[in-house]
Design a protein that fits this description.
By secondary structure, the chain is α+β, with helices and mostly antiparallel strands. The chain has a domain of 93 residues: Beta-lactamase Inhibitory Protein, Chain:B, domain 1 (2-Layer Sandwich). The protein is 28% helix and 27% strand. A hairpin with a 5-residue loop joins strand 3 and strand 4.
Length: 152
């Protein structure tokens, strides 16, 4: 039969192991995959100059996005990204894949382009603030400005 000291030591050791296991499992990497990029075999079926938008939609499916600044939706994008998050840290993009299918004015495939994470560029945000029209109210004007404005 085990002595009380041995039991409490085993219990303490088990508790420490359990706490360490929970702490380490909280630091596990979480992976999130979003979007859709078709297989290479499907992309190889797209032949520039031969297929139309309906053929591409049948083979690859609906695009993730359409070109915003070109007329007649001349480019279709199939976009996928994979992010990893460790514990409470910000997610980090580890993989990105973009397939762009360009069409001519008749809706026939012009070219198929591929991009990955290395092809992307960082864009710096502008810190300017757009001014609004009207009067800027101070603290006391905001707090007491409505007194007496509403009649019963």
């Amino acid at each position: 039969m085990a002595t009380p000291d041995l039991r409490s030591s085993v219990l303490r050791a088990a508790t420490v192991l359990l706490i360490c296991g929970l702490a380490l499992s909280a630091c596990a990497t979480r992976t999130h995959v979003a979007g859709y990029v078709p297989d290479d075999d499907l992309i190889a079926q797209i032949e520039p100059g031969k297929q139309k938008q309906t053929d591409v939609k049948r083979i690859l499916g609906s695009p993730s996005s359409l070109a915003s600044f070109e007329s007649h939706n001349d480019t279709w994008y199939y976009i996928s990204s994979k992010t990893e998050t460790i514990a409470f840290l910000s997610p980090e993009i580890v993989e990105r894949s973009v397939v762009a299918v360009d069409f001519d004015d008749n809706g026939v495939v012009k070219q198929v382009r591929r991009f990955n994470l290395e092809d992307g560029e960082d864009i710096e945000m502008v810190d300017r603030i757009t001014p609004t029209r009207g009067k800027e109210l101070g603290f006391f004007e905001q707090m007491f400005g409505n007194f007496g404005r509403f009649n019963k």
